[in-house]
Amino acid sequence: MMDTRGQSEAPHVLIVGAGFGGLYAAKALAGELVRITVIDRRNHHLFQPLLYQVATAALSPGDIAHPIRAILSRQKNVRVLLAEASAVNLQSKKVTLRDGEITYDYLILATGVRHAYFGHNEWEKWAPGLKSLEDALEMRRRILLAFEKAEREPDEKRRRELLTFLIIGGGPTGVELAGAIAEISRQVMVRDFRTIDPGEAQVILVEGGPRVLPSYPDDLSAKAEKSLAQLGVQAWKGAPVTSISEKEVRVGDRIVVAGTTLWAAGVEASPLARSLGVKLDRAGRVLVEPDLTIPGHHDAFVIGDLADLAGKDGKPLPGVCPVAIQQGRHVAHNIRRACQGKPLRPFEYFDKGSLATIGRAAAVADFGWIKFSGFLAWAAWLFVHIFFLIGFRNRFVVMFEWAWAYFTFQRAARLITGDINARPSS
Amino acid sequence: MMDTRGQSEAPHVLIVGAGFGGLYAAKALAGELVRITVIDRRNHHLFQPLLYQVATAALSPGDIAHPIRAILSRQKNVRVLLAEASAVNLQSKKVTLRDGEITYDYLILATGVRHAYFGHNEWEKWAPGLKSLEDALEMRRRILLAFEKAEREPDEKRRRELLTFLIIGGGPTGVELAGAIAEISRQVMVRDFRTIDPGEAQVILVEGGPRVLPSYPDDLSAKAEKSLAQLGVQAWKGAPVTSISEKEVRVGDRIVVAGTTLWAAGVEASPLARSLGVKLDRAGRVLVEPDLTIPGHHDAFVIGDLADLAGKDGKPLPGVCPVAIQQGRHVAHNIRRACQGKPLRPFEYFDKGSLATIGRAAAVADFGWIKFSGFLAWAAWLFVHIFFLIGFRNRFVVMFEWAWAYFTFQRAARLITGDINARPSS
Known about the structure:
2 copies of one chain form a homodimer. By secondary structure, chain A is α/β, with parallel strands linked by helices. Helices cover 29% and strands 23% of the residues of chain A.
């Protein structure tokens, strides 16, 4: 029912996933003589770098998401379908949907990664991860409920446990979550309670490796740890998590009873990759050719977090937006060349640097030729994130929310939605 | 564990429900020598008059909700507890919570109403109502999904059904929902689809009585119907709904197959009222004394939508915010008098008028001494709603969103959250 090849001579480009990779690929094909179909199981593009701000009540879901069809509405060679892909057949050039199928001449797979528990999927219930808006709202619910439950808890020991927040994983997401939770407990919640002192909340960041932000240079990790300490976050390093249950979390030989445990430790590829029948890496990502094609298939590309490709230094490219954006544009370029009968070109990543925030007016930046931290890094972080947000309205509102939060120490979205009696955590 | 009577000599005022009634009662007791506890099963006060705008993607949940404890944080004689009341014992002056109990010297019950299906609770699944943020997000999901499904539907008849929106109940909520859905389909969605023409969506408003807005004067009902017709809404009057199933809705002798059916037809009192063991009206509301006390109990008040009290004209006061606000303040005043040993005073409602909007720049207003419609009524509607929204941040953002929507014909919050494969409706 959705085979569109017969309708016209223009080749059909099917893009699965409208994250940064898929969206920038579609945009880079504007004006080309191709028919593009973008499918996604969400109706919105999500600005994932700010998802932790939704989880910590600083922004609303609508501020960091934008309807895919609104983004692409003026590009006449694109149609957008809300659909979930369940399998890819590279031989017959077909993608199976949950309710139908769709053929392609060129395929761009950009379905990304989701959080993973190293084979312990039972941990998810007690330590949810952060990949979608629903995940963020669930985290927000647990964090805010912990304070509410503590306010009503007569037993002091239990109250202390309820006010313990354990964040597992010391990468950028874990660091940003820990910083934001420390900040709201010390600066925002502190005036609003009568029984508890939210400022006494314990925020513990657990990292299995020897330092936080392992993908950053050593000195920036050290600066990030210092900023976290100033906010009152305890960073436990070299501390592998060995078990997570309803009652407690085991970290090395320590046992933590935390009211709220959050997961920011690992990702695995979208399960769609397994249906390809090609070689995957340990995290389930597709080992792509230098031109981003699937080995043996010149008409099928994988980009963004779902692709495993080594950079100039021989290490795999990181799962960050700039890689996805550049790969999206590069694949559009390669499809244009293929339509003209020209050979495909290998992808080269131009690393513009990394940024991570640690609460109010603190951040670390690594632009390769320069590394810095503190207020300037934070200003750079603000600028870059506003710039890549899609839509004037979202940019304006996010800037307003940040300014508002900065000057008033308030948070815009302190809402608990869903059932308050649902078990929030231990 | 939560008996607070022994702690101090000041009488304990327990307010159940932090809608307009409960909140204004708490605020009006600021500075009094009483200890106030506000309990609510939500952590936020919700501005219900704008809930339909969340349901139709114009506003985000955070724009019309504010944490109760943030609203009351500076009022030192108040504590706020997130808790759900399940029963009231007027004799022992105790409120049973789902997890504990709490005693009072004075009780203010302000738990409002919820939507009701006239004994057909099985209809809720196919025709959800609008009382909470979760309800609004579910409506939004169904409305937006209907367009998405239609875009992928090859069968023309089925596509037309998917683009049929049936709103049951011609009061203000039904009129506002119908107007907003017609508006987004004709003005917002129309550019973003390739297969369907969202402007062809059928929006049907069904009212059992002889005219829409039955609580308004005749001529304003007529004007509202005219505005609805201009937006392309069909208003079926004298059209009682007799059955709602997965497949179809029966309205009189007509059968409608609608992709989305929404309920705005009836309310019933919060079930807490039944635990009082006092006389209730047909909708389950408490028949209160003129001083808003429960008959025979001078220390227990019921206010807002949960109270049934006749106005000067002998008709029951309407379930609108101004009634709740004035009753909240009046009860605060009566508690102050009771503390001083003075007799309680009867409540008198000062009717400031009614307002309802029907889409872009159209509304009807009835201020008693003057009735008007059109742009001026719409401007009055904007002003009044911004004024009663709580919090500068929310006022600013809502004004921005409205201006943005007015000039760009966009909607800020077109997000589908939750499972897209969950059955949205028929």
